[in-house]
Amino acid sequence: MTSSETLLAGTRRALLHRIATAQAEGRTPSLVAAVQREGAIVWTGSRSCVDGHGPDDDTQYRIGSLTKIFTAVMVLRLRDEGLLGLDDPLEKHLPGTGVGGVTVFQLLGHSAGLAAEAPAPWWERTPGSIRPELSDVLGEQALPHPPGHVHHYSNPGYTLLGALVEKIRGDTWAAVLRQEVLEPLGMDRTTVQPQAPHAGGWAVHPWADVMLPEPAEDLGLMAPAGQLWSTTTDLLRFALFLARGDDRVLNASSVEQMRAPAAPAEAHDSIGNYGLGLQVLRQGSRRLLGHTGSLPGFLAALWFSTEDDVAAVVLTNATSGPAVAAVAADLVRIVAEAEPRIPEPWRPLPEVDADLLALTGTWYWGTRAHSLKLLADRWLELRPTQGPGRGARFRARPDGAWTGLDGYYAGETLRVVRAENGTVDHLDLGSFVFTREPYDTGAAVPGGVDEGGWRGLPG
């Protein structure tokens, strides 16, 4: 089954071929996928081992660790309301865990040093009722790594974040999720328990084409790490929110913070980085954000590219099989490369500040030339005029300075330094001095400029 009226026939064919190959080679009972471009679902497709019974965009699958993104959103909401700080130790808000020295930020980015899994028995395949307390989830060796030193993916870490939400809100994780995230975003097919129509989970024998049904347990305290069921339509709606923000849930600035790397990946991981609840994947030069998920009987992947404005979801009902992370990434790539995003028309700024306009042009850090451009909303962009190097966009601040947003200068302050007569002497960027001429003798260059001036090599 496929549907689309907006993609080219060749693109639709390539998307169908990719998921058909994944379902056949991955030996999964069913697979459903969808692609969104510029905020609209432009393609859906599915494959099934039962003719005429392919899942559609309203069929629920269990999404496993994609649940963690929702938990992270709930925590960021608490931060935005001033109810906690990301650098707060857990103990400040949730005392008595035994790991209270770890911070909220570390938990969100999996750098708190917590164990990857809860103690035996295997938590994904056993009832959450056998782990009624946080101590049952954390176990006796809760911190195999020193907090803040390494990135180590942790499911119990997100159990703690779910408990933190419950403690501050005074309600269950599920109720807060429904009221604060799912309902505002119109995600009525994302639920804690499965609601028909939904797929059943299966294990496929590795050496024979036979199947075994998997149990679907209520994860109890571990729910914030992997409980949810959802559909391709709901997850693409969620992807749009994660790309653009929604003031009813989190504003654009906060979701942008979620997308920024918070911790490096473990050496063996294929992801590039981990943000606050979001994985970051590099596919060539393309940067994809989202998450993968797995629980016995199910695999899921959601990736989106803010640069291409394309998102893709792949859901299957097999314990192992298709490499859904790669499939979803390929769906984004196919659309982005076959039908590149059409840029918005160039338009001039609605107004211009003459003083800011006078700052634009060439500036020199020592002898290295840089160009300074004026952007909308009084933002600035500083880049080397030739070759790679340190550059950044800068957001205007009320005090007349700018804060760096990218790379080496992220968080650094850019200021205009004026001479006594009011003229611009130089730009100060985190103590680096940028002048209008290389080592300008008329500017306050640290260390001064040799009085002999520029010279050649005597013969």
Short characterization:
This protein has 459 residues and is an alpha+beta fold. Helices cover 26% and strands 23% of the residues.
Written description of the protein model:
The chain has 459 residues and is α+β, with helices and mostly antiparallel strands. It folds into 2 domains: 2-338, Beta-lactamase, CATH 3.40.710; 354-435, no CATH class. It has 12 helices and 21 strands. The longest helix has 18 residues, at 9-26. Residues 352-436 form the DUF7586 domain.
Question: Strands, helices and their partners?
Answer:
Layout: E1 2-3, H1 9-26, E2 30-37, E3 40-48, E4 61-62, H2 67-80, H3 90-93, H4 104-108, H5 134-138, H6 155-169, H7 173-185, E5 202-204, E6 211-213, H8 223-226, E7 229-230, H9 232-244, H10 252-259, E8 263-264, E9 273-274, E10 279-283, E11 286-295, E12 298-305, E13 310-316, H11 324-338, H12 354-359, E14 361-365, E15 368-374, E16 380-384, E17 392-396, E18 402-404, E19 413-418, E20 424-429, E21 432-435
Helix pairs in contact: 1-11, 2-6, 2-7, 9-10
